[in-house]
């Protein structure tokens, strides 16, 4: 399974960005699709996720500002980010897995990850 992110960049406070993650290969493990982020010196945190039942989960810090949406025909998952804040600055990673999309953000060590795309808000 390969995940390729795109869409990161630099944006002013209050601006918007849309991240894309295209998934290829054996998609057997794609019950959960989602986005995590990691800022320098901080732990990786879950941002948004969607399960095979289309139920979404969001970190409290992004609720109402970020939206995750899949395009199953394109094997792509998007993250629309609005009203961006400096604290949203991080490397954003796309992931597929089995457990993290129930709101627990639990990682089993079986996930697939993209290479990351940098988002900088200033």
Task: State the main characteristics.
single chain, mainly beta, four-stranded antiparallel beta sheet, globular, 122 residues
How would you explain this protein's 3D organization?
With 122 residues, the chain is mainly beta. Helix content is 0%, strand content 48%. The chain has no helices and eleven strands. The protein has strands at 2-6, 9-11, 17-24, 32-38, 45-50, 56-58, 66-71, 76-81, 90-97, 112-113, 117-121. The strands form two sheets. Strands 2, 4, 5, 6, 9, 10 and 11 form a seven-stranded mixed beta sheet that branches. It is globular, with a radius of gyration of 13 Å.
- Provide the helix percentage: under 10%
H and E string: EEEEEEEEEEE
Which stretches of 5+ consecutive residues score pLDDT under 50? Answer: none
Radius of gyration: 13 Å
Question: In what range is the share of β-strand residues?
Answer: over 45%
Structure annotation, total helices? 0
Task: Report mean pLDDT, rounded to a whole number.
Answer: 94
SSE-based structural type: mainly beta
Overall shape: globular
Main sheet makeup: 7 strands, mixed
Tell me how many strands there are. Answer: 11
Rounded to the nearest angstrom, the distance between the terminal CA atoms is 34 Å
Structure summary:
This protein is 0% helix and 48% strand. It is an all-beta fold and 122 residues long.
